[in-house]
Q: What sequence folds into this?
């Protein structure tokens, strides 16, 4: 079964087999996306994908339950542009911890932090260990920017160069044109590569490995980081379908993986677990 937490009754939630149920907490953002995309871009793309999963797919291996999506995250890198909403570090940590505690209190054992905004990633990786230790939850972080989730699907489709897919870019513009075209103002779309001091340098780069603690205004004037040549909307829809399918493969593996169990089983499952 694939469903949303909000659609289940109290008794249906209580009756779910907790060993076979993955709770997914979708985390997102409300932040500037250049002049041409709405501030809800990350949240809209995420909810589009989730709605597609819930409506069009089945999950035989167990239950996938999407907790209510958080449409505000940690976006302080975008402050200075109008429209950005953000939690502070302590608030966001406390909020995620409280939600995970409530999910654990309903008896669930497995939680996926399902993230669509790069500014949330450090927090999610950090809190995943705390939630394991504090609540004995198995916690997985799925971040679509820092896995091959998008890059794998973009092979052979991407028209822009290395920095073309980053923020308010070829990928996000294309997805928004497919998901909610009436909110996209293509006449205002621009290309902007990152400030040269963040490219080609061995030590300071937007992609790491050494973090410069950059703010968006250090990297771009327009708020766009990337290019706008677009994947054809038709291609984006089939691309989205293949991405949804690949996400289900990850979920199946997590659903079967048991961390909180006897040590021998833990080693065995871990050995067989390849992403
Ligand atoms: Zn975005």
A:
């Amino acid at each position: 079964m694939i469903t949303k937490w909000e659609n289940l009754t109290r008794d249906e939630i209580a009756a779910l087999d907790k060993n076979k149920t993955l709770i997914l907490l979708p985390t997102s953002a409300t932040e500037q996306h250049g002049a041409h995309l709405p501030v809800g871009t990350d949240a809209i793309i995420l909810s589009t994908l989730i709605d597609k999963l819930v409506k069009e797919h089945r999950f035989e291996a167990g239950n996938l339950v999407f907790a209510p999506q958080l449409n505000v995250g940690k976006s302080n890198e975008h402050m200075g542009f109008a429209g950005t909403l953000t939690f502070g570090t302590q608030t966001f940590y406390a909020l995620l911890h409280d939600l995970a505690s409530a999910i654990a209190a309903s008896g669930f054992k497995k939680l996926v932090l399902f993230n669509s905004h790069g500014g949330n990633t450090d927090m999610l990786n950090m809190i995943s260990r705390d939630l394991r230790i504090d609540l004995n939850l198995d916690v997985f972080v799925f971040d679509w920017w820092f896995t091959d989730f998008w890059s794998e699907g973009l092979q052979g489709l991407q028209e822009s160069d290395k920095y073309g897919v980053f923020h308010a870019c070829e990928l996000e513009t294309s997805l928004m044109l497919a998901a909610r075209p009436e909110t996209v103002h293509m006449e205002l779309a621009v290309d902007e590569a990152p400030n040269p001091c963040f490219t080609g340098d061995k030590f300071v780069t937007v992609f790491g490995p050494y973090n410069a603690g950059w703010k968006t205004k250090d990297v771009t004037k327009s708020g766009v980081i990337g290019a706008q040549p677009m994947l054809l909307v038709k291609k984006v829809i089939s691309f989205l379908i293949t991405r949804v399918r690949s996400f289900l493969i990850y979920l199946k593996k997590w659903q079967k993986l048991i961390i909180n169990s006897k040590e021998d089983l833990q080693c065995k499952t871990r050995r067989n677990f390849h992403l």
